[in-house]
Each structure stands twice: as C-alpha cells, then as structure tokens.
Amino acid sequence: MERHASTLYSALAAKGHEIHVFTVPSDKRPRNDIQQGSLHVHFAANDHGSVNISLAFDIFNQENLIGEFDYVHTESVSLPHWRAKMVPKVAVTWHGIWYEIMHSKLFQELLSSSDGKLPGPMTELQEAMPRLVDEIKFFSSYKQHICISNSAGEALVNVYQIPQRNVHVILNGVDERKFVQDPKSGQKFRDKHGVPKNVSLVMGVAGRLVRDKGHPLLYEAFLTITKHHPGVFLLVAGSGPWGKRYAELGPSVKVLGELEPSELSEFYNAIDLFVNPTLRPQGLDLTLMESMHCATPVLTPNYPSITGTVVLNEGFGYTFAPNVASFVEAMELAIRDGTEVLQRNGMVCKNYALSMFKATKMASAYERFFLCMKNTRYCQYPLATDC
To answer: In this structure, what DSSP letter does residue 51 have?
Structure first.
C-alpha cells in the first residue's frame, strides 16, 4: 500500500493538484516534513514511530484553516470513522476488508489442519466474526467507498449494505516506466545471482517471507516439484522467517533477500513464471501487476479478487485452490507447457497490464472521482463508459 499511495499522490501532484499527505516515515525515524512542488508530506508520529492520529488531525485542521480542502481521502482506516463523521466530502480506499480477512484466516486454519505440523490460527478465526460485524456497523461513517477489486465492491454492496451509488472500483496501478519487458536485464540478473545455465524453468516469488503470504504452502509444493523436476529453479526475493526454510531445499532454490526497488523489474524479467502463494484473499497484490508489465505470466490462488480482476482466464497464467495438491497440479501444468507457452502468456499479461494497471490510468481515475466530489452538480461518477 505504501508504494500504491506514493505512486498515486505523486501522480496527482504532477497534474498540478495541491496534495497534502499525513503519514509517518517508513523507517520510523524522525524526519522533517517534505514539500516537493504541489506535494506536501506532513509527518505525525508517536514515540514508537506509528501514526499519532490526534496529532495528524490537529495538523490537518491547521492546514484546513489556511485553505479549505476540497476533499479528504483516507487509505483504509487511517482516518478513524469517529473522526470521518466530522469531515465533509470524505472518500476511503479499502485495501482489505474484514470480510476478506476472515476468509484468509479460514484458509490458514485449513492449511494448518491438513498438514498437522503447524499450529493453526483458530483463535484469530474465532475473533474475525465480531471484527467483521463491528466493521460493517462503522463503514457507513464514510460517505464514498473505493475498492481495488470488483469482488470487494460487490461485498460492500451485498454484505456491508453500502448503497451502490457510494461504492466505486478503481484498480491499483504501477509505474509503467519502471516495470518493463527487458530480457537482457533479466539475463544479467540471472548471471549475477548464479542461476544455473542448464535449468529448464525459473519460477520466482517476491515479498515478505511470512506465513500469511503463503510460504508454508509454496515450501511444501516446491518440495514435491524438486523430487520430480530437478531442472526447475526457484528464486526467492524477500526476507522473513521462511527464508531459512527455503534454503533447506538445496541447489534448486536461491534466496536473494530483500531487493532494492530498482532491482524488481530485473527480477521479474529473470524468471519464466511469477508465483504468488498468498493466503490473503484481500486487496490486490502489486507484485502480480508488476510481473505482468514485465511480460511474465503468473501462478496465483483463485481468489475472487484475483480471478475477477487480474487473471481473467488461462491465457494469463495459472490459478489454484489454496492447498498443496492444487498448487502442485498448477505447477506441473506450467512445467508441462514449457517456456514457449509461458512467453506467449507473458505477452498477453503485458498487453492487459498496459491497458488496466498503469499508474497514469489509476491517477486519472482518482482525479476525475475527486473532481466529481468537489462539484457534484456538473459531474457524474462513474459514467456508463467506465469499465
């Protein structure tokens, strides 16, 4: 979400809009406020480096006295619902809702129950329903709701009972200038990190190496793959507890650690297939969109948020149910198809990503939405032509 927010607000500021962001430094260290042209970043941290909501609201009120804001936008509950009631023309973008999080807890519990090795999050699952009920009750405190997937938008209307006219879907976008198809940079990346020349297929995964991102699932599935397909190689980009476990899989796996942002495009170009094993069916993972921009097909769970918005059909790659058997089956299919089919799928992904997941497209959609909030008399959002 941090990358999404930075991309969005920078793009809106570049269009000439005065944008004020109230946040904290990502490294949780004290920093001076930032002003870059039309972009103003106000830091409001507590002693632990987290957002001091009261301080942020005080700074907001001071700025609002200088020049009243035309609209207020909050990323999820950064502006708490009890304060949102006091602010006119508020819109909120939901990057994950408890209806989806509850499903995530369920999938994690099912995985734990099936392997019998890992303690399941049953307590968390039991706590999810009260959290969901509480969330449904306070969602009406926000006037306009933006979802980043079609399935989340449907949940807000059908489960949260938000009026259809107040629910909008604007897909996330990534910087199309940074994530591009570049086979040469991919080959250099392979050489730099010692990927063997004789491998038949290179899969890659990126992100935090933690449980809810599905790494227990990928570990077990790839362990099976290594027994039957020794020529398949896995590049693991990221850090976390499961990094050491992947290293146990032997020479078929290379753990890269965290990559610099400038290296991510090279990573996507270095692999034949991007694997996203997440157990979190909420929001949309930017890594899927980034890899697609680089003409790399994807292998991902068949959650409604993904299959309804990103991986529309088998031409984009492969989907699986969030269990080991289904995951292995999807991997086997990709291996059987081979690099030639994967390259064709990658071009389909690239063309789709360029039409749907561009930062410029996302910023334009938000721009028109906010302009409509400012002047509802002459503006309608969405239009019949929006899709």
So the answer is: B
Burial class (CB in 10 A: 0-12, 13-18, 19+), 244: exposed
Q: What is the pLDDT of residues 285-300, one digit of tens each?
A: 889 999 999 999 999 9
3-state helix, strand and coil shares in percent for the chain, rounded to the nearest 5? 50, 15, 35
What CATH topology corresponds to 2-174+360-374? Rossmann fold (3.40.50)
Domain assignments of the chain as residue spans, ordered by start: 2-174+360-374, 183-356
> Do the domains at 2-174+360-374 and 183-356 have one common CATH topology?
yes
Q: Say how many C-beta atoms besides its own lie within 10 A of residue 194's C-beta.
A: 7
Return the structure tokens found at 148: 């980043």
CA 377 to chain centre: 34
Whether the CB-CB separation of 130 and 184 falls below 8 Å is answered with no
Does the global pTM surpass 0.90? no
The arrangement of secondary structure in 183-356, i.e. its CATH architecture, is: 3-Layer(aba) Sandwich (3.40)
> Is 313 buried (19+), middle (13-18) or exposed (0-12) by CB count in 10 A?
exposed
CB 316 within 8 A of CB 352: yes
- Distance CA(314)–CA(334), nearest Å, equals 11
